[in-house]
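Blackboard transcription, Thursday session:
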Amino acid sequence: MRKRIITISREFASGGHTIAKMVADRLGVAFYDNKLITEVAKSSGLSEDFIKEHEEYASHSNSFLFQLAMSTAGTLGYPSVYQRLYEAQTHVIEDIADKEPCVIVGRCADYILRDRADCLHVFIHADMDHRVAHILEHYGQTEKTPEQRLKDKDNRRRNYYRFHTDREWGVCTNYHMALDSGLLGEELCAQLIIRAIEDTAKKS
Amino acid sequence: MRKRIITISREFASGGHTIAKMVADRLGVAFYDNKLITEVAKSSGLSEDFIKEHEEYASHSNSFLFQLAMSTAGTLGYPSVYQRLYEAQTHVIEDIADKEPCVIVGRCADYILRDRADCLHVFIHADMDHRVAHILEHYGQTEKTPEQRLKDKDNRRRNYYRFHTDREWGVCTNYHMALDSGLLGEELCAQLIIRAIEDTAKKS
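(Written on the board underneath:)
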């Protein structure tokens, strides 16, 4: 079946956002990354700042502490806000996919849209050296080493994904293509994704 | 750096062997799948039948039973034969990689050659429907359902990989490309791999 929707999951600082934007621009379809935050804010009534902080990341990089925080939050009545965010995000992603061909970055979109036959699911990753260079170029130095920051981000994303899905983050079988942007480069990654889209369209 | 060696890891019945052969033929390089068994037999003195049975599969699909079997075998002096097989396989793969450009299928080659900069590591997988059709076409019916056979093979390969490496099998970050041959088709998978080889060669 023709693939109208491309979901791009990515390791932090792997260039996944840039690749996704290149693909959307060249295919002439809508691009949802930060724009999704605005849509979720409208839908949920939550602030964009709150959404930015919690939309893709667990509150703890430690899986046990995150699980504990979520269960404790449950007894205090907090989960409603996290649950509301995730549910709003789910509905927004489903609506977007119904509405128009597009590229959606992150937010468990690969999982949320897993049963649709018109999606191509992609994962972008890169080795530590490339990601360190990327984080320093785009976000500069902080007190933590770049390696610590990347590890923390990966763990939070992994815990978030595991909590909301029945899957492990970054496992090949969840995606139709997984590409190492460190080795292949952003340009080639974009070209390979477009090639897959065009080729599967010919077969449909 | 120019990629001289391509390792192709694959789920059973995903068409990974066929894709690997197509890539080797089109690039005009050596192809190591069954040929590797002959080389390992020469190197280790073990029979080809024994190697075929144990070279990529744990003796149990259950991880705990396999670990138990290996530790029990240790006390009985058995590990030497499994260890000899794995060590012979490792040396053969390292020798091949030193000797000539080639495509190597399975056998933890992605892990054994992980520190070489001249390798492209690929993982091929496919959804259950495609693999069931493949197993029935190539191996026919048996008493077990195709789904049971595939699950058993996957588990044995996963346990074997986990035992001999410090990694999990089928995790995106172990490979430069992971492709769903069920969706993309064998022909396109081969083309995408060749495209990656050609493009990285231009950059080197």
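Lecturer's comment: Residues 79-99 of chain B form the longest helix (21 residues).
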